[in-house]
Write a structure and sequence with these properties.
With about 230 residues, the protein is α/β, with parallel strands linked by helices. It has one domain: TIM Barrel (Alpha-Beta Barrel). It is about 45% helix and about 15% strand. The protein contains 10 helices and 8 strands. An 8-stranded parallel barrel has the order 1-2-3-4-5-6-7-8, surrounded by 7 helices. The longest helix is centred in the first third of the chain and has 14 residues. About 45% of the residues are buried.
């Protein structure tokens, strides 16, 4: 029986396959890229030092290469985030997941936070920029503010979390974020979306992408339950 809303391809193209664990070896990164290729996911999200390596492995596929900037705490200076972004693009990244300056946001330094995001957007040479809010540390009011600042700065996505804070994504946060941006701004979940049913629940709530490490398990389960189409 097919799924009424989703296909295996839709599920796969929701996933940014995460290769961000600090202890990952090059062999593990290579294996992750092979999974990404096999299942034709949206992207891999790798460490900055692995961008060239992943770009070479994924050349000729539809799998994009993404990386992180100011990760995981967002505390780098804007100049450093700009350098990281330019280097990532030069190395072959076409998606940038940047962490906001959380302390500045919580200090009410909205102009500085927006300028920090805009500088990364400008440095990305037109590529996709996803802004990680790290909701574990924010009030609902601060989450709304961060969403609005991200949109004003020209970002393409707002993202719940790094996956390395005390908590990750929640359905309530997805709904709040979706309500806080214009329809053309997309939402990415990260942190704790590990099962197919959870991923579909987040899709229903309004995400366009989700970070994942259990990619193969989720897609295999979808095909087993619903078929490919």
């Amino acid at each position: 029986m097919s799924h009424p809303k989703y296909t295996a391809r839709i599920i796969a193209k929701t996933i940014d396959h995460s290769l961000l664990k600090p202890e990952m070896t090059r062999e593990e990164v290579k294996a992750g890229c092979e999974i990404a290729k096999k299942y034709d996911v949206a992207s891999v999200c790798c460490k900055p030092s692995d961008v060239k390596f992943c770009a070479d492995l994924l050349k000729g596929t539809d799998v994009l290469v993404g990386t992180v900037v100011g990760f995981p705490h967002g505390t780098s200076t804007t100049e450093v985030k700009v350098f990281e972004t330019k280097q990532a693009v030069a190395d072959g990244a076409t998606e940038i997941d940047m962490v906001i300056n959380i302390g500045h946001l919580k200090s009410g330094m909205n102009a500085e936070v927006q300028a920090d995001i805009k500088a990364v957007v400008d440095a990305s040479a037109g590529h996709t920029v996803k802004v990680i809010l790290e909701n574990a540390y924010l009030t609902d009011e601060e989450k709304v503010t961060a969403c609005k600042l991200s949109e004003a700065a020209g970002a393409h996505y707002v993202k719940t979390s790094t996956g390395y804070a005390p908590t990750g994504a929640s359905i309530a946060d997805i709904k709040l974020m979706k309500a806080s941006v214009s329809p053309h701004i997309k939402i990415k979940s990260a942190g704790g979306v590990r099962t197919l049913d959870s991923l579909m629940e987040y899709l229903d709530a309004g995400i366009s992408r989700s970070g994942a490490t259990t990619t193969a398990v989720m897609i295999d389960e979808f095909i087993e339950r619903f078929g490919r189409e």
